[in-house]
Amino acid sequence: MQKKRILSGMRPTGKLHLGHYVGALENWVKLQEDYESYHLIADYHALTTNLNTDSIYDDSIDMLIDWLAVGLDPNKSPMFRQSQIKEHTELHLILSMLITVNRLERSPTLKDQVRDLHIDRVIYGHLGYPVLQTADILLYKGAFVPVGEDQVPNVEISREIARKFNNQYGNVFPEPEPLLTKFARLSGLDGNAKMSKSLNNTILLSDDSETVKSKLKKAVTDPQKIRKGDPGRPEICLVYSYHTKFNPGESESIAAGCRSGELGCLDCKMKCAEKISKFLEPIIEKRKYYENNIDEVKNILSDGEKRGKQTAEATMNEVRNKMKLG
Ligand code: TRP
């Protein structure tokens, strides 16, 4: 049976962190077995929050290396940059005729971003962000889009645009559905609900064991537990939440030790650092391999861009035929 198709994408923000792993990559790696996956590096989308493109290529390569290091398989799934496949811009333009400004202005994803990043003037490209994202998905006829909760409204916009196109010109596109990631969020080292580069509270997938240790040493814990012997509350402790993810076998005994006071925060943190580093070890190993074989990475990208382009071209031919633009 023909496998269903997935389109997943990320903006190239450079080296990825554990939050990316838990919130997205872990899921992508699993999904590549059962679905035909396309992995998009959304470099045009990155412009909405950073006009400086000096490091955009290096950041894309860094992200690609992390994708490969966690186990995404380039033989199964093409990986490519949006900017290298011109069909994205072409379909984006056509789709931009099929949705109102008003509808885009109501997008909660846009509103959240404007608030969180303190954007005082919304650029045209920002408003059109979900339209470009729709082009990303529809060019590859993605039936499913693995995303976190915050992106669901964007996928809803994609569904509306796909429906509108199909009604106007004839059936070309599936209406994409979100595939929600279960364990959606990893808190940052400062206790913020989100691990994020801009908050500077991350553990990178490429951090060595010394770095992980020193970062964890500074992580916030239960403020009521000041020294060993004080009883703590694992359920509100960020380090404990990391244990549940990266050290599930011991998490019960750790919770008990924390509650009784027997386990001090420093010991608990060092144990956690050790487990996280153990988890990261094979990823770092693979990253080193790719860093030493950068030509292989570049070939993976150009091969992905060729394969992506073939699918995108075929879809655009269909679109032009239906629209009698041929
Ligand atoms: N908006 C997504 C994010 O910030 C990135 C993205 C761009 C994307 N195009 C996409 C995600 C297509 C899924 C499908 O995370």
Summarize the model shown:
This protein is 54% helix and 7% strand.
CATH superfamily of the largest domain: HUPs
**What's the CATH class of the largest domain, please?**
Alpha Beta
Order of helices and strands: EHEHHEHHHHHEHEHHHHH
> Can you tell me the CATH topology of the largest domain?
Rossmann fold
SS strand fraction? 5-15%
Structure, explained:
- This protein is mostly helical and 326 residues long.
- The chain has two domains: 5-186 and 294-322, Rossmann fold (3-Layer(aba) Sandwich), CATH 3.40.50.620; 207-287, Orthogonal Bundle (Tyrosyl-Transfer RNA Synthetase).
- The chain is 54% helix and 7% strand.
- The strands form two sheets. Strands 1-2-3 form a three-stranded parallel sheet.
- The longest helix has 29 residues, at 294-322.
- Tryptophan binds next to β1, α8 and β4.
Label this structure with key terms:
326 residues, three-stranded parallel beta sheet, binds tryptophan, Rossmann fold, elongated, mainly alpha, Tyrosyl-Transfer RNA Synthetase
Topology:
Blueprint: E1 5-10, H1 18-34, E2 36-41, H2 43-46, H3 56-70, E3 79-81, H4 87-95, H5 101-105, H6 108-116, H7 124-127, H8 129-139, E4 144-147, H9 152-169, E5 177-180, H10 209-217, H11 238-246, H12 251-260, H13 265-292, H14 294-322
Parallel strand pairs: 1-2, 2-3, 4-5
